[in-house]
Design brief:
With about 475 residues, this protein is mainly alpha-helical. Helix content is about 50%, strand content about 5%.
């Protein structure tokens, strides 16, 4: 009996390393997904808890919600020049061009939307007229009747200047630049999916090096682009959070590129736009400890960290978002979206281990200074997105950075702390000191959708690696 026991023990000892490591290599110390377990750094919940919650409850709801017109049409300026360097790089394949929307494709409610007045009048189209004392009153009245019936929306130039001051004050609280200028165009995100474009080499590396080396907080005397996981504890919580946010976004983008890889560029009746799918070798190259100096698993953990941060932002803004109109001009579609958002938010609020932002930026003047640095660093990163040489990469890079910026604004601006006061009645709208613009709401949900999609696709790569 003892001989059988020892024999089984020996077999078990020999076999266990391969159970953990069969994904990448026979060396158990080099496994990837086996390190992606247990508690998420600087958070209070486990990876497997997030996997189940996301894949079973969040991901299916988001897939349906983000296909609605309110969320699929994103207004963005892809024509801005890079303010930091001259770069004429282009992606290597023809699939990276972005298709702008035709006028007839845009929902009527979005075409009427006036972004500069959103925080004052919500999503209504308020056609502003200025009175300088020289206009014919009868002519003015006729124009107003023609455009807006008997609704008088005339305001003075002085009042408009005050509104602009309010907008400028709100902008100071923003963590990123938002595209709402005259060169911004609507893009249908469903027709321009995030996927591999062949954009790589010096231009792409320059983008990420500028983000990591020049805008991420760093431990003293650390000069590499990526900060090793064992060095992060040399920084305070706030600086660690900043790095994990950027690293998590980077990991998420890389997962999208690996899962939507161009497997064949040959057109056919079945796949006229080329064949796209999961590239397991590319995934291993980007995340295997063998090719990442053992950092790949930690980058994946940072993806989970960012997911929890954005999850918390949605939960915190839920009293505000629950009463948002999500206006596109279609009563039925808008009603369906409102119901779907409320359902999603109720599920999000049920999550038991949310990220705790209250532990950050405490400690008086020094904390205030650190928060300002935090905001400025992230605003810089949002501007760096204009330096991306691939149009589709720029589109999705800007969207995800702006979405994270909206989440950070909700968590750390201090303006969303009293959204759900005691005694708030059903149907009564929660008040805050300023509003989220439509672009911020669209990017907030879509950026969270990208993270949810990444975590769901990790399960697909797990299955491929087992096979």
């Amino acid at each position: 009996m003892k001989e059988v026991y020892y024999c089984c023990a020996i077999i078990l000892c020999l076999f266990l390393p391969y159970v953990c490591d069969a994904y990448f290599t026979s060396d158990a110390s080099q496994s990837c997904f086996c390190k992606l377990e247990g508690q998420i750094d600087d958070c209070s919940c486990n990876v497997d808890t997030v996997d189940h919650f996301n894949n079973m409850k969040i991901f299916p709801r988001l897939q349906s919600l983000l296909s609605a017109d309110y969320f699929r049409f994103y207004k963005v300026n892809l024509k801005r020049d890079c303010p930091f360097w001259t770069d004429d790089s282009r992606c290597a394949i023809r699939y990276c061009n972005v298709q702008a929307c035709q006028e007839e494709d845009i929902p009527p409610g979005l075409k009427q939307y006036n972004p500069s007045m959103n925080s004052i009048f919500g999503n209504q189209d308020m056609s502003l007229r200025f009175i300088d004392g020289n206009e014919d009153c009868e002519e003015l009245e006729a124009d107003l009747n023609e455009e807006l019936g008997y609704l008088n929306t005339t305001i003075s130039a002085a009042a408009y200047e005050e509104f602009e001051k309010w907008q400028a004050h709100d902008a100071l609280e923003n963590f990123c630049e938002v595209d709402e200028d005259k060169d911004a165009q609507y893009v249908d995100l469903l027709l321009n999916p995030e996927r591999y474009t062949g954009y790589k080499g010096k231009s792409a590396h320059r983008i990420w090096n500028s983000i990591y080396k020049e805008n991420c907080f760093r431990p003293e005397n650390h000069y590499d682009a990526f900060i090793q996981s064992n060095q992060l504890n040399r920084m305070c919580l706030e600086k660690r959070v900043f790095y994990r946010v950027i690293s998590g976004m980077h990991a998420s983008i890389n997962i999208h590129l690996c899962s939507k890889y161009l497997l064949s560029d040959k057109e056919s009746l079945i796949s006229p736009g080329g064949k796209w799918g999961a590239n397991l070798e590319e995934f291993k190259r980007r995340f295997s400890p063998l090719t990442t100096d053992n950092e790949g698993p930690h980058w994946l953990r940072n993806l989970y960290f960012l997911y929890l941060l954005e999850l918390r932002a949605l939960a915190k803004a839920a009293p505000y978002l629950t009463h948002e109109e999500f206006f596109t001009g279609s009563d039925k579609d808008d009603r369906d979206v409102r119901d779907a958002v409320r359902d999603l938010l109720s599920v999000i609020k049920s999550f038991p281990n949310h990220f705790d932002e209250s532990t950050m930026f405490t400690g008086g003047a020094q904390a205030t200074k650190l928060k300002d640095e935090f905001r400025q660093h992230f605003r810089n990163i949002s501007v760096i997105m204009d330096c991306v040489g691939c149009e589709k990469c720029k589109l999705w890079g800007k969207l995800q950075v702006q979405g994270i910026g909206a989440a950070l604004k909700i968590l750390f601006s201090g303006k969303f702390e009293s959204l759900s006061p005691p005694g708030l009645q059903p149907g009564q709208k929660a008040k805050s000191q300023f509003q989220l613009q439509r672009g911020e709401i669209v990017t907030l949900f879509n950026a969270f959708g990208r993270l949810s999609n990444s975590i769901n696709e990790l399960e697909m790569f797990r299955k491929l690696l087992r096979e």
